[in-house]
Amino acid sequence: QVQLVESGGGLVQAGGSLRLSCAASGRTFSGYTMAWFRQAPGKERDFVAAINYSGTYTYYTDSVKGRFTISRDTAKNMVTLQMNTLQSEDTAVYYCAAGSTSLVFTREREFRKAYDYWGQGTQVTVSS
């Protein structure tokens, strides 16, 4: 079992930045694909970014490429999402997720159902 706890959300003006963190505990964290998803009001939970177990491979949805950066610190059991140049469309609840080691290299990496563990989410609100 893996427990995930997100933090770092808040209210920011358009063009600003936020850094989200996801603290993992429980089973060995280092072997998992880690990802961020987001869910806006009335919409589906969508994929944002994923990272492999060693932090050497990352994958992003097109809308955040060049603005968001996912990273991980295995020693600290932590995954972060640095979000820059935020836009009102980025307003959502952001969720951290953990999946199998190889998941990040497959097309299923963007599928919510492919992930085994989830955090409770953290709210990000971007005001225009």
Q: Beta-sheet strand percentage?
A: over 45%
End-to-end span in angstroms? 40 Å
Average per-residue pLDDT, rounded, comes to 95
Q: How many beta-strand segments?
A: 11
The helix/strand series, from N terminus to C terminus, equals: EEEEEEEEEEE
Number of helices: 0
Radius of gyration: 13 Å
Which of globular, elongated, flat, extended, rod-shaped describes the shape? globular
SSE-based structural type: mainly beta
Major sheet description: 7 strands, mixed
Unreliable segments of 5+ consecutive residues: none
Helix percent band:
under 10%
Defining key terms:
four-stranded antiparallel β-sheet, mainly beta, seven-stranded mixed β-sheet
Q: What does the model show?
A:
This protein is mainly beta and about 130 residues long. About 0% of the residues lie in helices and about 50% in strands. Strands 2, 4, 5, 6, 9, 10 and 11 form a seven-stranded mixed sheet that branches. It has a four-stranded antiparallel sheet with strand order 1-3-8-7, with no helix packed on it. A hairpin with a 4-residue loop joins strand 7 and strand 8. The N and C termini lie far apart (about 40 Å). The mean pLDDT is about 95.
